Q: What sequence folds into this?
């Protein structure tokens, strides 16, 4: 079992727990090395690092940047970043900027389908209003009885072809990777299995083109063990890691009790042959 959890969210983005509560839960559940990777924001890292020190836990500064590549939305996790590095701070600020206008359009789209009050409803769930996103709308849609849980919201709403979906332009892949690596961090392609399902799924040829561009931009890691991967996918993405000479990362992608595929805590071991991403910062 791995006692590293290198992907999770606090209420600074779309998680349910404060950074300190998240760290306490991770400690209780046996995590020894934790990275907080909020979407497009580093505002939770100081509180989380202080809490980790109280729990004798090693803490890694992280972030999960939203990227548009071709017609796909991708997530790039940055690990061991310097959250004060100005291009990273400014880059993340730029990504966050578009979220308010997008939320307005999402609410208008839901209103056209007869669902009123979504903007106010979603903001009630956003502790950090500059990070308003689809999860906050999803919680509102559950609360107002339109869906039974967050997972079913993402089948009937907020996704392409459904009410509440608004296309959006995030950061470019080379920009996001550049901000992360420029700050001294390791850029990791998050949950690749998630891009290979659904209506517009990516095939293996496109994934290879993506990985080539990612590596050429300075990307060095790929999530092999992710809360949203099956055990077959651990093996599949271990093979891509080997093919592209990438370090393997692992993370639950926990958002909140009862809301995520996998809770914080120990994750299954990597398949054989994986080089763990922490080699990059533990070597020196
Ligand atoms: P946004 O960055 O506002 O587009 O929101 C993306 C977030 O929505 C992801 O980080 C997840 O937390 C959530 N999300 C997306 N798809 C799903 C899904 N199928 N089930 C549950 N949550 C999802
Ligand atoms: Mn999320
Ligand atoms: Mn993600
Ligand atoms: Mn995530």
A:
């Amino acid at each position: 079992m791995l006692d590293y959890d290198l992907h999770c969210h606090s209420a600074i983005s779309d998680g349910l727990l404060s950074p300190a509560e998240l760290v306490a839960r991770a400690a209780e559940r046996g995590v020894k090395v934790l990275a907080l990777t909020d979407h497009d924001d580093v505002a939770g890292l100081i509180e989380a690092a202080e809490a980790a020190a109280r729990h004798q836990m090693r803490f890694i500064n992280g972030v999960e940047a939203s990227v548009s590549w071709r017609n796909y939305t991708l997530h790039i996790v940055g690990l061991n970043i310097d959250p004060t590095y100005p291009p990273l701070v400014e880059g993340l600020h730029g990504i966050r900027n578009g979220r308010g206008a997008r939320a307005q359009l999402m609410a208008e789209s839901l209103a056209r389908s007869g669902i009123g009050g979504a903007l106010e409803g979603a903001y009630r769930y956003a502790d950090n209003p500059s990070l308003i996103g689809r999860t906050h709308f999803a919680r509102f849609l559950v609360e107002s009885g339109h869906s039974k849980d967050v997972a079913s919201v993402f089948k009937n709403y907020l996704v392409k072809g459904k009410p509440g979906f608004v296309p959006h332009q995030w950061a470019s892949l080379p920009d996001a990777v550049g901000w992360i690596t420029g700050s001294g961090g390791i850029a990791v392609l998050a949950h690749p299995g998630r891009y290979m399902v659904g209506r517009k799924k990516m095939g293996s040829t496109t994934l290879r083109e993506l990985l080539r561009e990612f590596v050429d931009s300075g990307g060095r890691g790929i999530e092999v063990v992710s809360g949203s991967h099956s055990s077959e996918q651990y093996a599949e993405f271990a093979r891509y890691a080997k093919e592209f000479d990438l370090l393997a990362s692992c993370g639950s992608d926990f958002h909140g009790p009862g809301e995520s595929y996998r809770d914080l805590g120990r994750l299954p071991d990597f398949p054989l042959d994986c080089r763990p991403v922490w080699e990059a910062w533990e070597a020196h």
